[in-house]
Amino acid sequence: MRVSFLGVGEAFGASANTSLLVDRRLLLECGPHTLLQLRRLGVGPDEVELVYISHLHGDHFLGLPALLLAFREDGRRKALTLLGPGELENVTEELLHISYGKSLGELPYKVRFLRAGGELGFMNYRLSFAPTRHSVPAMAISVAGKKKLTYACDGAPTEELVGLASHADLLVAEGYGGGAATHSSPLLAAQLARRAKVRRLALVHLWRGLAEEEVDRAREVFENLFVPADLETLEI
Ligand SMILES: [Zn+2]
Ligand SMILES: [Zn+2]
Out of 3.90.1170.50, 3.60.15.10, 3.40.220.10, 3.40.50.300, which CATH number does the structure's domain 2-235 have? Predict the structure, then answer.
């Protein structure tokens, strides 16, 4: 399984918005910076099969109109699946309208909406979900094929998330910090990684004001931890 960190940033920082690309087929999150990062990786209009939106905060979904219309301009004909909260279809339709006066029906390819929850199969992957504690409803996702990736999205860890991440080859977790009750931190992410017995932990979505010592302290709890950079790719 190949995981590209298109972006590792929070909403208002100097890194691209947090977004992952799995096997160049599954896009997890689509913030305002995501299309640019896909372009930088040279991802073609037919490569992405599914876009997952964990929750409706701008840094996670406001890139959808540009992505959908860029696919149109680049000649996409293949159907696309959008997976996320129940409101995602209405929100996407509204966003297309507000931003470019367009609608889903005008796209030359089909967009299918799936609601995140439970467990579902997509291509050769098994997708499963768990809620986190965030300021709006948010769902972490596990993508399992030959390997297992868990993306913890925004929010403080929950017991369900510990189960979801169990024995993952890679856990990508936010470490926003700053003491917010509706966010995780490097330390909470490290404790989650340890309890879930994952192989590696990537810390993303770090607050722009976070002290580096917080990451060092987290490493004392879970050693196999790293902070990826925008556009870093690794094979898990
Ligand atoms: Zn965010
Ligand atoms: Zn958020």
Answer: 3.60.15.10
